């Protein structure tokens, strides 16, 4: 059966190649820093299950130290110039989109076929992970198609990949760090503390204000944790279930579903949700690392108000 | 008695981000302090952090698309995306991003949320298209204006994803809601929960597309 570990291995080999190419890049002022950083990512993906929890912990400290003290930087591997790219674009025309579409189409058709045809009954792929597996397969198909059609130098995909990953830098690893921080927060009882603080500000007897504190609490706690998944159990235990559902007889489906979406409004406004907010800023090479968040606030705030109103109207019909 | 001391970890994160310290150090520092306050010994803190990092490796998988995206950029994919938009008479940044918003919400709603995203679609396709449309409306963009258009492209992906995915009943967040409420004795069908995500999805579309049309007007006004 194809499991996630196959994909870890694929990604690990890619990061290992980035590390080796970094070390060999004499034009790069921080080449050994980059080599160590991507080398540690390769070690995590290839050998993370073999080095033990403490070993993984040291690996993470290494990543944080290399990134935090400025040992990694951008690189300029050989690629085409702006003018060459314009020429290629004119010459190849819209056919250039076809290899780009191979990845989403493979993921899309693969996922649909696996779930809605007999294909899924063979059990070839780890359950619930089929989209990731087909994404990986799509990457390999796309690479094959590009090589067959355009015949780039054999090393080109790895050098071009390194160009992009170095442009993203440590932001590529931050989402995984934040998820790990969430685990420590939970172990330390941060959720209980937040829940009890929220209960203190609830006014007696007002359904609307209780709904408002629930929605705001979801959004604010999501901003702190970077993730509505961490906020939901806490807010459900503090307000959602005891007050809105049991106390005021609100519809549990509405309180649950729209409460979660109130949390998603918080996700739009926090740097803690790095993969949605900081990674694209790096990926699009914005000067302001909070540029994406700044644009999202004016969508998130009115939407949060509407979600609070929707809970109030729909849960207490 | 509830122990409020672990909240210091949160204060450290907020202060670190506000001071624009390197987030990798802020997160690691906060994790260590939070663990120590919770009574773990240093080895236990490092081990817990390491185990969690290892358990979350799935987050790193999306980067396998980078060699393909980089290779296509080498052959002018961004230039081609821009050229397509320049050839369309009525394309504007706002209309283009509204179209992408619809696409993202619908594909996420049928469970195909991992098929698009910032590395896969926004950087190589959506952002260069949005920039080309803005240049058509406005003429040459200043750096700040180009930043804003690119930020809107990323924001549109996020809004579409967040307010589409919960309509799909087999997504993680719906399963989580269902499981949490079940522990209190409320057994709800995931499909029933997913239906209640539809009103918010519609409002999210209306609010964000209004903002995109306003962006269009701003771009057009300064271009004239």
From TrEMBL, chain A:
Annotated TM spans: 6-24, 58-75, 96-119, 131-152, 164-188, 200-221, 228-248, 254-279, 291-315
Species the sequence originates in: Sphingomonas cremea
Pfam families reported in the protein's UniProt record: DUF979
Keywords tagged on the record: Membrane, Transmembrane, Transmembrane helix
Record-linked InterPro entries: DUF979
Protein name, UniProt field: DUF979 domain-containing protein
Automatic annotation (TrEMBL), chain B:
Keyword tRNA processing attached: no
Organism: Sphingomonas cremea
InterPro entries attached to this UniProt entry: DUF969
Assigned keywords, A-Z: Membrane, Transmembrane, Transmembrane helix
Transmembrane portions of the chain: 7-38, 58-77, 167-187, 193-214
Descriptive protein name: DUF969 domain-containing protein
